[in-house]
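User: Please predict structures.

Assistant: First:
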Amino acid sequence: MTKTDVLDKELSNAYALTKQINNLFENFDHTFLDKRTKLTLTAYLDWNQKYEKSFSESLRELGINPGNTIDSVAKEMLDNISELDNEKLSKSVKNLSFKLCLNRLLSYHKANMENIQELLKNQ
């Protein structure tokens, strides 16, 4: 495996991550979230949607086809968020649980972007 192969894989995972996030939150009931968490989520989703579109175009230009790639780590985190939507918890506990999951997801997404940056720097 070459550095280019590693970069291609990381780019495909990054695209899969953005796509999985957008798919989950498309119909997500976020009425239980407090105002601050809603604002954070909205800003993140706005950025993520724009990023998915530009990222998709960039991948095509590079000749990378991520196909139906799924980021399994992100899937686990997103499954946890999805399950919150169906759990019978108080609004405050649900909100807190969501914040913790979102924090984990944001940190993972940031790490993914840093990995790509590092790989591009060393090419």
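Second:
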Amino acid sequence: MRAKRLENGRVRLAGKVWADEFEEERVPSWIAFYERMFSNTGRVGYQTAAAALKALPPVDA
């Protein structure tokens, strides 16, 4: 699972099977969602998605 910031100001989260793009300000809510889903299901993919988003470098000021 990889997360990266795009030139258009969006964030792309992509795995082997799917990908999604969303606005930068949604990153915290997606991290919370993936952590909650991991807690509820134990599926490592959710934990991996949250970790990928957390590992994004800070936005340039």
